[in-house]
Amino acid sequence: MIGKISGRIDYRGADHVLIDVRGVGYIVHVSDRTLAGLPGPGEAVALYTELLVREDLLQLFGFPTLLEKEWHRLLMTVQGVGAKAAMAILGTLGAEGAARAISLGDARSIQAAPGIGPKIAQRVVLELKSKAPGVMAMGAALSARAEGNDADAVIEPLPVARKPTPAPTQSRAAYTADALSALTNLGYGPVDASQAVAQAAGEAPEADTATLIRIALKLLAPKG
């Protein structure tokens, strides 16, 4: 599985780029949004990738962040949504926009993506609404660094491998902070989001980030 490609752009197409990785060229399909943010030919670039394997076809799809890659994979679990349709949704809304639309049950925003009809849009919202908090929690926990711009780490000689340090166990305060960050990214006001997360934490003291987000979204949902 090819999970990430770092190199230099040789060519920019309408929906893909050709990336040279030490003399080997990879065609990587990207969304309009991603393509607009990429540098020109000859410049360094790094993209997280998903390899689509079919009997007669191998295609690489590229994403600027791990969060967008995870949303692409989740969208493809919906019946009728293939790799290109999922890319169209992300190209129109971005990762955070897709999360917002699905969490709020906003099928019209999903339908705004090219090639996505009302039935598919509604199916996306219904099937993924319960799964969205898990991916949102992942996004809240990701580092603030620019994840897709470390191409030189592969272009230049690789550093000596270091022994990995075990990841620290996340505290309750960290779960709460990540849940609050995810809700504010969805457009909720800081006060409303804080109150909802605090109430969720009170109702479920052992909850992780995804559970806190799920409870808080229910508390924030319009009543009636």
From TrEMBL:
<dbReference type="InterPro" id="IPR011114">
    <property type="entry name" value="RuvA_C"/>
</dbReference>
<dbReference type="GO" id="GO:0009378">
    <property type="term" value="F:four-way junction helicase activity"/>
</dbReference>
<dbReference type="InterPro" id="IPR012340">
    <property type="entry name" value="NA-bd_OB-fold"/>
</dbReference>
<keyword id="KW-0963">Cytoplasm</keyword>
<comment type="similarity">
    <text>Belongs to the RuvA family.</text>
</comment>
<protein>
    <recommendedName>
        <fullName>Holliday junction branch migration complex subunit RuvA</fullName>
    </recommendedName>
</protein>
<dbReference type="InterPro" id="IPR010994">
    <property type="entry name" value="RuvA_2-like"/>
</dbReference>
<feature type="domain" description="Helix-hairpin-helix DNA-binding motif class 1">
    <location>
        <begin position="108"/>
        <end position="127"/>
    </location>
</feature>
<dbReference type="GO" id="GO:0048476">
    <property type="term" value="C:Holliday junction resolvase complex"/>
</dbReference>
<dbReference type="InterPro" id="IPR000085">
    <property type="entry name" value="RuvA"/>
</dbReference>
<feature type="region of interest" description="Domain III">
    <location>
        <begin position="170"/>
        <end position="224"/>
    </location>
</feature>
<keyword id="KW-0234">DNA repair</keyword>
<dbReference type="InterPro" id="IPR013849">
    <property type="entry name" value="DNA_helicase_Holl-junc_RuvA_I"/>
</dbReference>
<dbReference type="InterPro" id="IPR003583">
    <property type="entry name" value="Hlx-hairpin-Hlx_DNA-bd_motif"/>
</dbReference>
<keyword id="KW-0378">Hydrolase</keyword>
<feature type="region of interest" description="Domain I">
    <location>
        <begin position="1"/>
        <end position="64"/>
    </location>
</feature>
<dbReference type="Pfam" id="PF07499">
    <property type="entry name" value="RuvA_C"/>
</dbReference>
<dbReference type="GO" id="GO:0005524">
    <property type="term" value="F:ATP binding"/>
</dbReference>
<feature type="domain" description="Helix-hairpin-helix DNA-binding motif class 1">
    <location>
        <begin position="73"/>
        <end position="92"/>
    </location>
</feature>
<comment type="function">
    <text>The RuvA-RuvB-RuvC complex processes Holliday junction (HJ) DNA during genetic recombination and DNA repair, while the RuvA-RuvB complex plays an important role in the rescue of blocked DNA replication forks via replication fork reversal (RFR). RuvA specifically binds to HJ cruciform DNA, conferring on it an open structure. The RuvB hexamer acts as an ATP-dependent pump, pulling dsDNA into and through the RuvAB complex. HJ branch migration allows RuvC to scan DNA until it finds its consensus sequence, where it cleaves and resolves the cruciform DNA.</text>
</comment>
<dbReference type="InterPro" id="IPR036267">
    <property type="entry name" value="RuvA_C_sf"/>
</dbReference>
<keyword id="KW-0227">DNA damage</keyword>
<comment type="subunit">
    <text>Homotetramer. Forms an RuvA(8)-RuvB(12)-Holliday junction (HJ) complex. HJ DNA is sandwiched between 2 RuvA tetramers; dsDNA enters through RuvA and exits via RuvB. An RuvB hexamer assembles on each DNA strand where it exits the tetramer. Each RuvB hexamer is contacted by two RuvA subunits (via domain III) on 2 adjacent RuvB subunits; this complex drives branch migration. In the full resolvosome a probable DNA-RuvA(4)-RuvB(12)-RuvC(2) complex forms which resolves the HJ.</text>
</comment>
<keyword id="KW-0238">DNA-binding</keyword>
<dbReference type="GO" id="GO:0005737">
    <property type="term" value="C:cytoplasm"/>
</dbReference>
<keyword id="KW-0347">Helicase</keyword>
<dbReference type="GO" id="GO:0009379">
    <property type="term" value="C:Holliday junction helicase complex"/>
</dbReference>
<dbReference type="GO" id="GO:0006281">
    <property type="term" value="P:DNA repair"/>
</dbReference>
<dbReference type="Pfam" id="PF14520">
    <property type="entry name" value="HHH_5"/>
</dbReference>
<keyword id="KW-0233">DNA recombination</keyword>
<dbReference type="Pfam" id="PF01330">
    <property type="entry name" value="RuvA_N"/>
</dbReference>
<dbReference type="GO" id="GO:0000400">
    <property type="term" value="F:four-way junction DNA binding"/>
</dbReference>
<dbReference type="GO" id="GO:0006310">
    <property type="term" value="P:DNA recombination"/>
</dbReference>
<keyword id="KW-0547">Nucleotide-binding</keyword>
<keyword id="KW-0067">ATP-binding</keyword>
